[in-house]
Amino acid sequence: MVRPKATHRVEVDDERVRVTRWDFEPGAETGWHVHGLDYVITTITPCSLLLELPGGDTNRVDMEAGFSYRRAEGVEHNVINAGDAPMTFVEVELK
Q1: Less CB within 10 Å around the terminal CB: N or C of the chain?
Q2: pLDDT in tens, 50-85
Q3: DSSP string of 46-60?
Q4: Taking the CB of residue 77, how many other CB atoms lie within 10 A of it?
Q5: b/e per residue, 20-53, with b = 16+ CB within 10 A?
Q6: pLDDT (0 to 100) of residue 37
């Protein structure tokens, strides 16, 4: 299945952090990636995430706007907007 790609814009990239805004149309994906840094996600809009994980597993997570969570480097996944509305979150990578 070919999905549209999420768009992103790096807003800050200095010696301490990288801040990236991610925007997803319904059904859009990031594509498979591995996080090389610890990171924090903060939702700007309500987000319905479908996380594709190694080995074929998936995890659906629904979050309200303004929710934050942290993950350690090494996470591998593909993030998909599983909802029927556009969604946005900000990723802060800790260098």
Answers
A1: N
A2: 999 999 999 999 999 999 999 999 999 999 999 999
A3: -EEEEEE-GGG-EEE
A4: 20
A5: bebbbeeebbbeeeeeeeebebbbebebbbbbbe
A6: 98
Structure confidence by residue, pLDDT tens digits, 27-39: 999 999 999 999 9
Hey, CA dihedral for 9, 10, 12, 18, is it positive or negative? positive
Distance CA 90, CA 18 (A): 10
Token pair of 15 as six digits? 């010696």
Residue 47 has phi, psi (to 5 degrees) of: -130, 130
CB of 24 closer than 8 Å to CB of 81: yes
pTM over 0.90: yes
Nearest of 10, 4, 39 to residue 24 by alpha carbon: 4
